[in-house]
Amino acid sequence: MPHTFDEAYYHRFYGDPRTRAASPAEQQRQARFIATYLRYLQVPVERILDVGCGLGRLLRQLEKAFPRAECMGVEVSSYLCDTYGWQCGDAQTYSDERPFDLVICSDVLGYLNKSDCARAVRNLSRLSRAALYLNVLTTEDLDICDPQHTDMNQKLRPVAWYRNHIDRHFVSVGGGLFMKKPLEYPVWHIERG
């Protein structure tokens, strides 16, 4: 049965402080990390895409970090598209004429079956010119995630499955940040995942 990304889902995992997966303060720290690391690598960020942007908290924080950047949010949830004005689309098929310097895809891939997930990773590579920030729940995370604050109705796969697909297109530089292959920016080998 397909997952319903409706008002109740977003209230539980994003709105209600007792059950939300991440607080606005956590997403602010996430954005600071991403922006600081990309500045450290001297990656110019003029276009940002958040695929599965949810309420847009991370995207809004990145807008503050990169005030001159064009920022776009894409969502599969018609509820969020109607409420926040996001573009309707999904990680597997969304396209744009120009690549983005930074693509965000947080807590999306776990809702896709294996073939759609593999298609999504390939598409994220096409959408990204330089960097991808990716977050997904894996089987190895079950012992550290809080089931009260985590949607456990995701398709759990091992880290190795994801890395097999992601490593074809990107180099991990830590903290969920990946740089597009071939590397245009100097990243010490010790810093790579």
Give a brief description.
With 193 residues, the chain is an alpha/beta fold.
Q: Tell me the major beta sheet.
A: 7 strands, mixed
Radius of gyration over C-alpha positions, nearest whole angstrom: 16 Å
Proportion of residues in extended strands: 15-25%
- Give the CATH superfamily: Vaccinia Virus protein VP39
Quick one: CATH class? Alpha Beta
CATH fold descriptor: Rossmann fold
Assigned CATH architecture: 3-Layer(aba) Sandwich
State mean pLDDT (0 to 100 scale): 87
First and last CA, distance: 35 Å
Count of separate structural domains: 1
The succession of helices and strands, N to C, reads HHEHEHEEHEHEE
Shape: globular
Instruction: Give the uncertain stretches in residue-range form.
Output: none
Main-sheet strand order equals 3-2-1-4-5-7-6
Number of helices: 6
Number of strands: 7
Helix content: 25-40%
Structural class: alpha/beta
